[in-house]
Design a protein that fits this description.
The complex is a heterodimer of chains A (about 525) and B (about 300). By secondary structure, chain A is an alpha+beta fold. Chain A folds into 2 domains: about 180 residues, Dipeptide-binding Protein, Domain 1 (Dipeptide-binding Protein, domain 1, Alpha-Beta Complex); about 220 residues, Dipeptide-binding Protein, Domain 3 (Dipeptide-binding Protein, domain 3, Roll). Chain A has 13 helices and 22 strands. In chain A, strand 15, helix 9 and strand 16 form a beta-alpha-beta unit. Chain A is globular, with a radius of gyration of 24 Å. The relative contact order of chain A is 0.16. In chain B, helix 11 packs antiparallel against helix 12. Chain B is flat, with a radius of gyration of 24 Å. The chains are: A alpha+beta (about 525), B mainly alpha (about 300). At the A-B interface, helix 4 and helix 10 of A face helix 2, helix 3, helix 5, helix 7 and helix 11 of B.
Chain lengths: ~525, ~300
């Protein structure tokens, strides 16, 4: 078997920065030391177990404690972390990782190949609850080669392996704490990792406190501790940062963004994200068969004044989509736009025999930035080109999922607003929305889009080990999808972070993550 | 008396059983698949099915119901589907916060409400009465979330005097307790005023005054004591509404009590926690009603239970 060396190398066309000194944590703030950085977040952690956690913001916190084999940097590129190099066999069925040496868990145990194996064995144990493990289940077994080398044996190639390994789901916790049969095997409420912080205290519903891990192998953070305040109400979070009672807050009320931007005591970071917001058409619609025609769906795409909505409804917290995925993903290429053009939309609808189109439309409320408000304007724009719109109707999130996540025969709405953030920054994670194998209930491809050519391209790209060929395939598929318009392509949501001007070095990672690891007092 | 209390406890059992049944059915009537909500949108169907099995939701409804009642009899409320911790532990870690908040709010409401009501009644139709009555209406009609945010803006953002949110400082409770109390203050003040006015017009008050008793003694020993019955009823009802109002107040002020736990659990379709909390609220109502009834007998010696 010929083995292709990929060490510290190209991850699908994204060249990695040379990284010889062994340190990859990039200090981004100043060098002033601080006591406690207080960060107000909206969600209460359900679990701190990296394996069981599915919420980005909480994963974000866990990631400061539990490190992964590779990680995403602030520009979205994959970087070495606990693994310093990796090789994959030419058939893509084995991956060998070289591990960083001299790393210790915060309880003093050494990090080594046995630790990696113990963690993989745990998450891939069919008895374990690991909601995000699906794509990793192709791993058959894990072998310890020697202390600093570990080999993953796959049943079938997993092309986006590195992207997958950036998820904290596959983070490495101290092996002694996950011994099989022990109570913490199935549920880790105080995970012990190798990261720059340790989990010091958690009061449910109130706060989580991290303490600096002084034996950390990489660059040590400036703040002795980081305290996450759990504040569900956006307006209360805003009050906290304005009152100086929090240093950083996530997701202020967007309607206050202009005022916050004018306020000199705080700074606003509209971080680039990976979440695409769209209106999915029911492309198999049996009640409104006109929606089965791509020309009709294209026409409706021209009917929406996206720029205006972003400016006046989302207060700038988004950028228009120019491909069926966010530009921060591997495999993205810019494919086009549907510029706002009422007369073009009207004439296209007429040509397609759809001048008397009636559509019912639903939107969640409070799930995405200004979702329902945007849906109202969209309904208005659709009415302006002669479509009769029933809606937008809204409902709470579980009911909403229950309405749209159904087999095509049970579909009851013609269009629904949805946001899709890939699990990790790889096109494969965005493109599940356009694979006919992912129609509900198997997946969440709720537009029921089907194009055999796209299906074939995506299946090929998902297991292709030549990364530049993968990128080309995703690009070709993107172009076709854009033309077929199974969505009303809207925008890529930004991730607003507000922080006190007394703090510097607050950054973000383009998967709706904050990066305060190396923040410092200004 | 003791038999009466015992009988009331026995009657509470079928009531709680009814509450348990209703909440069991209501939770399952809500649309949306709890297993999918818990697994997250990115989970595969296999993982969703696994979670459904773990939660016992693949069983037919009657089986789930019997399981639920069976564990209830063993005082086992199950485990949270969302956090995997025992429901009793989840509620137990949050309940002290809500009790603290509701208790402080209740004390504030009772003290201010009764004092304001008495003052308004004694100075009937004066400017003071007008101000108190207007403020009472204000308190009753202000939406909790608006009032809470206004207090935050004034006292935390503007004056930097009090914490805006959280529960980890001694002064943290001030704003949420005030917000929560204001509605009850208004209600208690209005009830006290009207009840007092009725009593103050009675002959024995005139007699007491004619006997030369000081006005403080007349108002508090003779008038207020006799005006208390309807006020106690209102206060009893307020305990319930304070727990209910805590849901909003706890959200605005990031107070880690059971109100927020309830909201989160409903959104996550976390059946075991929702069931446990509603049962707990039900039991609290029953208990408070019983206490109010017993208080009647204490306040009005003519009332005797047997």
């Amino acid at each position: 078997m010929r083995t292709k060396l990929l060490a510290l190398a190209v991850v699908g066309g994204l060249a990695l920065a040379a990284c010889g000194n062994g340190t990859t944590g990039t200090p981004t703030g100043g060098s002033k030391q601080g006591d406690t950085l207080r960060i107000a977040i909206g969600v209460d952690p359900d679990t701190m177990d990296p394996m069981r956690q599915t919420t980005t913001t909480i994963q974000n916190i866990v990631q400061m404690v539990v490190e992964t084999m590779v990680k995403i940097d602030t520009s979205g590129k994959v970087q070495p972390a606990l693994a310093t190099a990796w090789q994959t066999s030419s058939d893509g069925l084995t991956w060998t990782f070289t591990l960083r040496s001299g790393v210790k868990f915060s309880d003093g145990q050494p990090f080594n190949a046995a630790a990696v194996k113990a963690n993989f064995d745990r998450v891939l144990d069919p008895a374990s609850t690991c909601p995000l493990c699906g794509p990793m289940r192709g791993v058959k077994s894990v072998d310890v080669v020697d202390d600093t080398h570990v080999k993953l044996n796959l049943a079938k190639p997993i092309a986006p392996m590195l992207g997958l390994l950036t998820e904290v789901t596959f983070g490495i916790v101290a092996p002694a704490s996950i011994q099989k049969g022990g109570s913490t095997y199935s549920d880790q409420e105080k995970p012990i990792g190798t990261g720059p912080y340790t989990l010091a205290e958690r009061v449910k519903g109130d706060h989580v406190t991290l303490q600096r891990h002084d034996g950390y192998w990489g660059t040590k953070p400036n703040y002795k501790s980081q305290k996450f305040l759990i504040v569900p109400e956006a307006a209360s979070r805003e009050a906290l940062v304005r009152a100086g009672q929090a240093d950083v807050i996530l997701l202020p009320p967007v309607s206050d963004l202009p005022a916050l931007q004018r306020d000199s005591t705080v700074k606003v970071l509209l971080a680039p994200g990976d979440r695409t917001i769209f209106m999915a058409f029911n492309t198999q619609d049996s009640q409104q068969t006109l929606l089965q025609k791509p020309e009709v769906r294209q026409a409706l795409n021209y009917a929406i004044n996206k720029d205006q909505i972003i400016k006046s409804v989302l207060f700038g917290a988004a950028s228009p989509m120019d491909a069926p995925m966010a530009s921060t993903l591997f495999g993205y290429c810019k494919v086009g736009s549907y510029p706002y053009d009422v007369s073009k939309a009207k004439s296209m609808l007429q040509a397609a025999g759809a001048s008397n189109l009636t559509i019912n439309l639903v939107s969640p409320q409070g799930r995405y930035i200004q979702d329902f408000q945007a849906a109202q304007v969209i309904a208005n724009d659709l009415t302006a080109v002669g479509v009769k719109v029933n809606g937008p109707r809204t409902m709470d999130w579980p009911s909403y999922l229950g309405t749209i996540n159904v087999a095509p025969a049970k579909a009851s709405v013609d269009m629904h607003l949805l946001g899709w953030a890939p699990g990790y920054l790889d096109a494969s994670q965005a493109m599940v929305q356009f694979q006919s194998t992912q129609w509900p209930p198997a997946g969440l491809a709720t537009s029921y889009y089907q194009n055999p050519e796209v299906d074939q391209l995506l299946a090929k790209a998902n297991s292709e080990s030549d990364q530049s060929q993968r990128a080309t395939d995703y690009c070709t598929a993107s172009k076709q999808i854009w033309k077929d318009a199974p969505w009303l392509f809207l925008w890529v949501q930004r991730f607003p972070i507000v922080y006190s001007s007394k703090v510097t070095g607050v950054q973000s990672i383009p998967n709706e993550s904050f990066y305060t690891m190396y923040a410092s007092p200004a | 008396m003791l038999t009466y209390v015992l009988r009331r406890f026995l009657v509470a059992i079928p009531t709680l059983w009814g509450v348990a049944t209703v909440v069991f059915i209501m939770a399952r009537l809500l649309p949306g698949d709890p297993a999918r909500v818990i697994a997250g949108v990115l989970a595969t169907q296999g993982d969703v099915d696994r979670i459904r099995r773990q939660m016992g939701l693949d069983q037919p409804l009657p089986v789930q119901y019997l399981d639920f009642l069976g564990s209830l009899l063993r005082l086992d409320l199950g485990r949270s589907a969302h956090t995997n911790a025992p429901v009793l532990e989840e509620i137990g870690s949050r309940l002290p916060y809500t009790i603290e908040l509701a208790f402080v709010a209740l004390v504030v409401a009772v003290v201010i409400g009764i004092l304001a009501g008495v003052t308004a009644a004694v100075r009937r139709n004066s400017k003071t009465d007008l101000i108190i009555s207007s403020l009472s209406v204000f308190g009753i009609s202000m939406p909790v979330y608006w009032l809470g945010l206004m207090l935050i803006i004034v006292f935390a953002v503007g004056l930097h005097a009090l914490p805006a949110a959280g529960a980890d400082q001694p002064t943290s409770i001030v704003l949420p307790a005030l917000t929560l109390a204001l509605f009850s203050v208004g209600l208690i003040a209005r009830m006290t005023r009207s009840s007092m006015l009725e009593v103050l017009g009675q002959d024995y008050i005139r007699t007491a005054r004619a006997m030369g008793l000081g006005s403080g003694s007349v108002i508090f020993r003779h008038a207020l004591r006799n005006a208390l019955l309807p006020i106690i009823t209102v206060i009893g009802l307020q305990v319930g509404s304070l727990l209910g109002g805590a849901v909003l107040t706890e959200t605005i002020f990031a107070w880690p009590g059971v109100g927020r736990l309830l909201i989160d659990s409903i959104f996550f379709r976390d059946y075991p926690v929702v069931q446990g909390l509603v049962l707990m609220f039900g039991a609290t109502f029953i208990l408070v009603n019983l206490l109010v009834d017993l208080l009647y007998a204490y306040v009005d010696p003519r009332i005797r239970y047997s």
